[in-house]
Amino acid sequence: MSREFLNRETQLCMSLSGRPSNVGTRFHNYLYDELELNYIYKAFTTTDLAAAVGGVRALGVRGCAVSMPFKEAVIDLVDVMHESASAIESVNTIVNEDSELHAYNTDYQAVASLLRSSGFSHDFSVAVTGSGGMAKAVVAALRDSGFTNGTVIARNTETGPALAQAYGYRFSREALPADLLVNVTPVGMAGGPDADASPYTDEQIHSASAVFDVVAMPSETPLITAARTAGIPVVTGAEVIALQAAEQFVLYTGVRPTDDQIRRASEFSRR
Predict the structure, then answer these.
(1) Are strands 150-153 and 126-129 parallel, antiparallel or unpaired?
(2) In what order do the strands lie in the sheet with 93-97?
(3) Which of 21, 106, 120, 240 is the most exposed place for a label (fewest CB within 10 A)?
(4) Domains in the chain, ordered, with CATH?
(5) pTM score of the predicted model
(6) Which residues are known catalytic residues?
C-alpha cells in the first residue's frame, strides 16, 4: 500500500476499542488510497478514556470510531450528541469539528439497512442476547424496523431489563427460542474466552427462521456456521462492520465511496 502523499497536512482518524483489530484500519486506509485522500487511520485501546478523548480534541484528530466497552462511557466526554446517538444513548463515532466533538451512531444505520434488505418477516419473534451499547443500537433498529415481538436476553439484571423496557421488549436471563436469533455479545469473537461458543443451543438454532450475529471477527462465528449448516438465512458481523464503517468514512471525509469500493474495502479488511 503506497502512502507517498503522507505529510504534515495528513488527517488522522482512529478507533478506540477494548480489543483493537485490523479490520477498521485496513478498511479505511484502503479507501484513502483508492480515493487518493490525505488521511491515515490507526487503531488504539486505552485504560484512560477521558485522556484518550481529550487527545482527539487537543491533537486535532479528525475522527474516532468507538467500540466496546466505551460506547456509553464516552457520552459525557463529547460536546454534541446527534440524533442517531442521543436516541439510543450510545456512541460509535466521534467527529472533531474545530475542537468540538460531535457524536453519532452508525451501527444503528447499518443494522436498520441490513434488516430492510434481508426480507425477514416483521411477524418474526426476536431474541437478542446482550444489553450494552451495541445492543441498544440493534434493539432500536429492530423495533424501528417493525420487529415488535422481542426479548432481550442478558445476565446483567440492571441493563437488560432497562433495555427491554425502553423498547417494549421482554427480558430474560436465559436464551429463548425465537424466529430471529440475534447475538450482540462477545460470544464467538476471535481471541475471546468464548471464541468457540454460541449464545444459542443447537435446538434453538434449528428451530429458528433466521440468524443475525454482529460479531465481526471472525465473520463465520460458531453461531453463523451452525445456522448455515442448518440452511438458515444469516446476516453476519462482517456486513454490519462494512456498512457502519462506510458511514463513518463519509462523516470523516465528506466523500461517499461506491458500493463496489465498499465491497472491495471490506474484502481487503478481512484478508
Answers:
(1) parallel
(2) 39-44, 11-16, 63-66, 93-97, 100-104, 80-81
(3) 21
(4) 11-105+239-269 (3.40.50.10860), 121-232 (3.40.50.720)
(5) 0.85
(6) 71
